[in-house]
Design a protein that fits this description.
The protein is of the alpha/beta class and 213 residues long. The chain contains six helices and nine strands. It has one domain: Vaccinia Virus protein VP39 (Rossmann fold). The strands form two sheets. Strands 5-4-3-6-7-8-9 form a seven-stranded mixed beta sheet. It is globular, with a radius of gyration of 16 Å.
C-alpha cells in the first residue's frame, strides 16, 4: 500500500457522505490527521472515527470536522475563533481556509501538545490561548466566524456578542446527556437566524476554571 492511499480513501468517503467544498476536501487530504492522535492510535488516524486524545477528550470524526468546516463558510480573509482546541486538528484544518485562526482550550496539557504540533507543521496563522472559551476572546474584538467543538445546551452569550456583522457560528447544541445537533447561527441586520443541520454527540463544553492536567 502506498503512503497516499489512506488519505485518498478518506477523501472519497467524505465525498460519498456529501462533503462538496473543494477547499475543505483538500485541507482534509493535506493535514496529516495521524499526527494529531496519540501514538497507539496513529495507524487509525486516517479512518473516519473519533479517537481518544487523553484527559477524557476526543478528536472528532473526520466527517464531522469536514461537515462543520463546510457549514462555517470560511473565506481566506476571515478571522476565525475556535473553542476547544483539543488535539489541534480542527484548528489546523480551519487555519488552511482562513486568514487567522484563534483557538482556546481549557485543559493545559492538551493545549501544549497542540501548540507543539502547530510549531512542527509551521502553521503560523494560529494563535492559542489557555482559558475558558465560554467567555470568548473579548480583547480580540469581533470574529467573522466562530466554531465551538464541545457541546452545550445553548450558545454562551459572549460568543454571540463577539460574532461580527454577517458572521456565522457553528456549534453542537443540545442536552449533554443525549443527542445534540450541529447548529448554524448567522448574524443578520435584525438579530440571529438559526438552522439545524445534523444530529451528533460531542463531549461537553465546561464553563468555569481551567484545568492544569
Ligand atoms: N477541536 C478538537 C475537538 C476536541 S473535543 C479537535 O480537533 O481535536 C472538545 C475540547 O473542548 C476538549 O479538548 C475540551 O477540553 C475543550 N473544552 C471544553 N470546555 C471548554 C471551555 N469552556 N473552553 C475551552 N475549551 C473547552
Amino acid at each position: 500500500m502506498t503512503e497516499e492511499e489512506p488519505r485518498i480513501r478518506l477523501v472519497m468517503e467524505l465525498r460519498r457522505l456529501g462533503i462538496k467544498d473543494l477547499n475543505v476536501l483538500s485541507a482534509m487530504e493535506r493535514v496529516p490527521r495521524d499526527e494529531f492522535v496519540p501514538a497507539p492510535f496513529r495507524e487509525r488516524g486516517w479512518d473516519n472515527l473519533a479517537l481518544p486524545i487523553g484527559n477524557g477528550q476526543t478528536i472528532s470524526q473526520p466527517h464531522i470536522v469536514a461537515f462543520m468546516s463546510e457549514a462555517l463558510e470560511v473565506g481566506d480573509r476571515h478571522k476565525v475563533l475556535e473553542i476547544g482546541t483539543g488535539s489541534g486538528y480542527q484548528a489546523a484544518i480551519l487555519s488552511t481556509l482562513c486568514r487567522r485562526l484563534y483557538t482556546i482550550e481549557r485543559v493545559k496539557p492538551l493545549l501544549q501538545t497542540a501548540e507543539r504540533r502547530f510549531e512542527i507543521m509551521r502553521l503560523q496563522n494560529i494563535v492559542t490561548r489557555w482559558g475558558d472559551g465560554t467567555r470568548g476572546w473579548p480583547d480580540q474584538g469581533t470574529f467573522d466566524r466562530i466554531m465551538i467543538t464541545a457541546a452545550s445546551p445553548s450558545v454562551p452569550p459572549p460568543l454571540l456578542d463577539q460574532l461580527g456583522p454577517g458572521g456565522v457560528l457553528v456549534a453542537p447544541i443540545g442536552p449533554l446527556d443525549g443527542e445534540q445537533s450541529i447548529v448554524r447561527i448567522r448574524r443578520t441586520e435584525s438579530g440571529f437566524a438559526e438552522e439545524i443541520l445534523l444530529d451528533v454527540r460531542f463531549v461537553p463544553l465546561i464553563a468555569g476554571p481551567t484545568h492544569e492536567g
